[in-house]
Design a protein that fits this description.
It comes from Sphingomonas panacisoli. This is DUF937 domain-containing protein. The chain has one domain. The protein is built from seven helices and no strands. The N and C termini lie far apart (34 Å).
Length: 109
């Protein structure tokens, strides 16, 4: 199970990256990139799907389908909060970045 599958399971049931990719006709790697781009775009100004489409190069229709499979805008908002960090601790991507920085010498001295 991928990291994104774990986060998705916290906001919706029966959605995983591999099955999601199959449902919308893209590769699992594209699905991961799409879900991450949607999460990143959700709190930004403008249309979430259009912003994610510009970031990934995927068709906005496919991204709209992904939002629907995730559970709509409400579930996407929950996912984005976990992914981006709605609280003091930062999001999962901040934590991964910090871990990677520590492993590869990029941490604070």
């Amino acid at each position: 199970m991928s990291l994104l599958d774990g986060i998705l399971s916290q906001v919706t049931s029966n959605v995983d990256i591999k099955n999601l990719a199959s449902k919308v006709g893209i590769s699992p790697e594209q699905a991961e990139a799409a879900v991450a781009a949607l999460a990143k775009a959700h709190p930004q100004e403008g249309d979430t799907v259009d912003t994610a489409a510009a970031a990934t190069g995927l068709d906005s229709g496919i991204l709209s389908q992904i939002v629907g499979h995730i559970g709509g805008e409400g579930s996407l908002g929950q996912f984005a909060s976990i992914f981006n960090g709605g609280g003091e601790g930062g999001g999962i991507m901040d934590k991964i970045g910090g871990l990677a920085g520590g492993l590869f010498g990029g941490g604070k001295a």
